[in-house]
Amino acid sequence: MSVTGIADHGLLADGQSAALVDRDGSVNWWCPGRFDGPAVFGRLLDHDAGHWSLRPEGDFTSERAYVTDSLVLRTVFTTATGAVAVTDGLALEPGARGHRVGRHSPRVLARVVQGLSGQVRLRSQFRPRFEYGRVVPRLDRQGGEVVATAGATRLVLHADTPQSVGTGEASATFTVRAGERRGFTVGYGPAYAADPPVRLDAAQAVDDAVAGWRSWIHLHDYQGLYRDEVRRSALVLAAMTYQPSGAVVAAATMGLPEEVGGERNYDYRYVWVRDFSFTLEALWRSACADEVGRQFRWLARSMGVVQDGVVPIMYGVEGERDLTEHRLEHLGGFADSRPVLLGNDAWRQRQTDVLGEALCAAWLMREHLDPMEPETRQLLRGMTERAARDWRLPDAGMWEERDVERHHLSSKVQCWTALDRAVRFGDRLGTPAETARWAAARDAVRHAVLSEGFDDRAGAFTGTVGGADLDASALLMPLVGFLPADDPRMRSTIRAIEERLAHDGLLRRWDGDPAGFVICSFWLVSCLALAGERDRAGQLFESLAGRSSDLGLFAEQIDPVTGEARGNFPQAFSHIGLINAAGALADVDAGHDVLSPAPPRLIPVGELRAPTSRG
Fold it and tell me: Of 69, 334, 543, 556, which residue is 20 to 30 A from 150 by alpha carbon distance?
């Protein structure tokens, strides 16, 4: 059962976790320990899995927006008797600015109610449920606070208004008049820690969060095409970065369905190597190149020595490898979509495309990897050797098929990418003999793809070698430099994919995919631009950008008929697609090729000053 639509939620973040707040003022998701930790508010997946609502009593309308250049959400509620604003934010470390934003989260959710006109009667309902709704905590008054405890978790609610405490719930009803302000905070901490959860002033915490996020975006001040959309997407990627390690999670949520009522309800709160190359390109294009070295250090530390067996394709935010999947049978699921899955068994799969994505990222960031750290060099050499050895093997493919392994064309292409970039690195990565061997393997992969990957019946490169079914992953071929987009075979492929897999500008991954996959749709933008259809590519970009939520957020997929968001939310891959498509349009305008894209345009920021928190 669900309480509201997926895209009706706003994202709050603190560099270690994320919370989702709906239009009606209910926090329906929060995993306060870290992105992939247990939820204390899980109403997104079941009506009894915990929430914290703060809203007017009776009828109201609401309008919302992020405070400018921040991840602090302001919702204005209008009633027959007046209007109030509720401003929500996850607290950042007081005084944190620039690169330090989110490194040391106090793990506090702050909410401030401000009277705007007349008077409004409001109600707060604090109803935590620990471990994804399994546990009803004990709530006790301790001084002026309400403490919720059970198992390993402790939450402390501090409010300016008296709370009524019952079984598993604290509530308050109060009136706010024009000019009045009320503050609420909930702090999280381990139940047996020596120190209690941090207590902060709600208004000050919100102001500090605004100033912190503004300092981050002003430090990474992108000035290129579609500036507003790219800056918002870059801020979303920053929000989904686990700052202690630098890892970027695929999504802030788990269990949200690709198809309502379907079973593909996966946990996406982990870090995919596949996303790595696209993420780094997006960070670079959006003026966040300072993150590059940190990202490679994280990957090298997480992956360790590339040995025999399957190369790991995903990790926990601190490099954990065992992400064994199981069902949370007690949860009803979003819109009754079951099972709700915790963990993700894709960690066991062989996906040889990840080798190319990592090497592609390294080549794009080559100036930032000079000199190359020994652990990074060892990692890239190991991945290159695996590409030379494993490109002939079947795998699960980039869409992580769970039935049988196949010879996916995109995996072959990405093995070519790995070998091609390794050859380009030359003696920075290998000896002359090794480089020659890698070049020979690269040429063998290319011959196999060109001779066996194009299907005359389909008039296109297909999803699997020797197959006839179309797959949007073929659009990666010009984006990694395998073939120019204006090559006749590539033009034919782009045309076939658009004609048979697109609906109203939204591109499905394959025939039968239940909804348009956002990043694939942005790949189409890039391919059209590179094929010489710059005007149409720009029009498609603007159409797709207009399909985000009112807060500029994208889920993984969009239903092309209803326009409703599908899948986990917000989805890093979708925002990465937007940034990189804007970059591809800029490349075409500047005459750059895909291997030497246009650098981001910046305004020198000089000495960083903390911006004000108003406005």
Answer: 334
**Overall average pLDDT of the 147-152 stretch:** 96
pTM: predicted TM-score of the whole model, two decimal places: 0.94
By CB atoms closer than 10 A (0-12, 13-18, 19+), residue 322 is exposed
What is the residue whose two structure tokens read 């179309």? Answer: 470
Say which residue the tokens 């750290």 belong to. 373
pLDDT digits (tens, 9 = 90+) for 281-291: 888 787 766 66
CA separation for the pair 55, 43 (Å, rounded): 16
Q: What's the CA gap between 514 and 260, in Å, rounded? A: 9
- Please report which helix (H) or strand (E) contains residue 459, including its range: none
Residue 607, pLDDT > 50, answer: no
Distance, CA of 366 to CA of 344 (rounded, Å): 32
Return the DSSP state at 346.
G
Q: What DSSP string runs through 270-310?
A: SEEHHHHHHHHHHHHHTT-GGGHHHHHHHHHHHH-S--SSP
Q: What are the residue ranges spanned by the domains of the chain?
A: 6-215, 220-590
Answer yes or no: are the C-beta atoms of 583 and 285 closer than 8 Å: yes
Are 342 and 268 a contacting pair, CB within 8 Å?
no
Contact (CB, 8 A) for 438 and 422: yes
Q: How far apart are alpha carbons 412 and 352 in whole angstroms? A: 8
Q: Report the CATH number of the 6-215 domain.
A: 2.70.98
Structure confidence at residue 613 as a pLDDT band (50, 70, 90): very low
Q: What share of the chain is helix, strand, coil (3-state, %, to 5)?
A: 35, 25, 40
| Bridge partners, 127 (sequence order) | 51
Q: What does 461-521 look like in DSSP terms, one character per residue?
A: E-SBTT-----GGGGHHHHTTSS-TTSHHHHHHHHHHHHHHEETTEE-SSTT-SSEEHHHH
Q: Give the CA diameter of the chain.
A: 79
Radius of gyration of the chain from its Cα atoms, rounded to whole angstroms:
24
CATH code for the structural domain at 220-590: 1.50.10.10
CA–CA separation, 168 and 140 (whole Å): 10
Among the listed ranges 175-184, 234-243, 385-394, 600-609, which one has the minimum average pLDDT value?
A: 600-609
* Helix (H) / strand (E) containing 430: none
Q: For 308-366, how does the pLDDT look when each residue is reduced to its tens digit (9 = 90+)?
A: 667 889 999 999 999 999 999 999 999 999 999 999 999 999 999 999 999 998 898 88
What is the rounded distance in angstroms from the CA atom of residue 508 to the CA atom of residue 490?
18
